[in-house]
Design brief:
By secondary structure, the protein is of the alpha+beta class. It contains 4 helices and 5 strands, in the order H-E-E-H-H-E-H-E-E. The chain is elongated and about 55 Å long.
Amino acid sequence: MGISDAAYAEQLEKLQQLRVEVEKLHKPRMVTGTTTGALHYEQQQPIGIKPLRGEDLQHEAMKAPLSSLANMWTMRWGNDWVNEQEFMDDDFWRLTLIRLLGANKLEKHNLINQYHSVYRILE
């Protein structure tokens, strides 16, 4: 039993569309409108989780024991895979993610069908 030609063609079209979307994300966009007529490149959002800053070291997530952070993760998400977008706007969970990754307490995978990584607590 194999895949039909129609289903194969449909998947190829989806893959091509995904490639186009990824290329759009990586191309610098030129912005005009200055009085000098010079071109300026629009700053893109950083890829992945925001890195640590100096003030992050004083955050409660950086002071908590790793075992407590792992327990909180388990209480919130259990053994489910969590998309990286969950951590973009929440400093506590972003810092918890960074600490648990650094301590090899999380499993990380990059999926081919989405732009962001997924994470799961190791048992």
